[in-house]
Write a structure and sequence with these properties.
Blueprint (H helix, E strand, L loop, with lengths): L2 H5 L15 H14 L4 H5 L4 H15 L7 H15 L2 H15 L2 H10 L7 H15 L10 H5 L4 H23 L7 H4 L4
Helix pairs in contact: 5-6, 5-7, 5-8, 5-10, 6-7, 8-10
Keywords: Oxidoreductase, Peroxidase
Pfam families: CMD
InterPro entries: AhpD-like, AhpD_core, CMD-like, Uncharacterised_peroxidase-rel
């Protein structure tokens, strides 16, 4: 880790120490350290309100990390498209790393995080990205007819519901991360790169 990264605050708010967080938060930090070799800054920064962080994590974990209706790569594509549109540095960088890992394609993952139209996505992923952009940019204009392109690429009701929930989760999480200036961990920049 660089000296600059070590000295840069990871949030606009003070970040609690381990002895200041609920036991459930400390256990999650330990699991993250064991699994990734670091604790994601979003886990540390949101622990200011430990119980609220754990509630957020429960839903986030259910949508992104459990067996679902969309593939891991599709969910991470949504994460980077929405985060790129919202200008959320933390989520674009951290989920860009996850998309690189799940897709095995660093080039496409990097392009999708900046401008998904340049990523040359297959039809299903293109439809997912288009819908994610529509729901992110103009939620008041979304109608039943906007589901047609998703149906045309074979998506069923369960996949569409999960897609909408993942888009919603990232729009909310982007706003929290951006409002409080969350800084991505240095480790994300080099993850899953050839």
């Amino acid at each position: 880790m660089t000296e600059r990264a070590e000295s840069q605050p990871i949030s606009f708010l003070p970040v609690p120490e381990r002895d200041e967080v609920p036991e459930g938060v400390a256990r999650l930090w330990d699991k993250s350290q064991e699994a990734f070799g670091f604790v994601p800054n979003v886990f540390r920064a949101q622990a200011v309100n430990g119980d609220q962080f754990l509630a957020w994590w429960g839903y986030f974990n259910l949508l992104l990390n459990k067996e679902g209706h969309l593939t891991n790569a599709e969910r991470e594509l949504v994460a980077v498209v929405v985060s790129g549109l919202n200008g959320c540095t933390y989520c674009a960088v951290s989920h860009g790393a996850a998309l690189r890992e799940y897709s095995g394609d660093a080039r496409t993952a990097d392009l999708a995080a900046v401008n998904w139209r340049q990523a040359d996505l297959p039809d299903r992923k293109r439809a997912i990205a288009e819908y994610a952009e529509l729901l992110t940019r103009a939620p008041d204009q979304v109608g039943a007819e906007d589901l047609a392109p998703l149906r045309e690429v074979g998506m069923d009701d369960h996949e569409i519901m999960e897609l909408v929930q993942v888009i919603g989760m990232f729009n909310m999480t982007n706003r929290v991360s951006s409002a409080l200036g969350f800084v991505p961990n240095e480790e994300y920049h080099s993850m899953a790169r050839p």
